[in-house]
Design goal:
This protein is mainly alpha-helical. It contains three helices and no strands.
């Protein structure tokens, strides 16, 4: 979709928040390689990226929970910060 970014300006609607209708997106023509092996390589690469994104999201959730727990300990006085 980034490839079509220059075309978004022509399709945008709305005065405060610009938006594009799903119909406009459905009408976009995407180039897809004919070679099945190339398609599989691309799919495999994207699947790897999905796994990496999920791992980062899980790490972020764990760090947010850790932060929340530490903040609670600081606020209740169970943990003190040294000057």
């Amino acid at each position: 979709l980034v490839y079509f970014e220059s075309k978004w300006g022509k399709l945008e609607q709305g005065s405060i928040f610009s938006s594009i209708s799903s119909t406009d997106i459905k009408l976009l023509k995407l180039r897809i390689p004919n070679d099945r092996k190339e398609q599989e390589k691309i799919a495999s690469f994207l699947s790897g990226l999905d796994k990496e994104i999920n791992a980062f999201q899980n790490e972020l959730i764990a760090l947010q929970k850790q932060k929340q727990g530490l903040m609670q300990q600081l606020l209740t006085g169970k943990m003190r910060v040294k000057n």
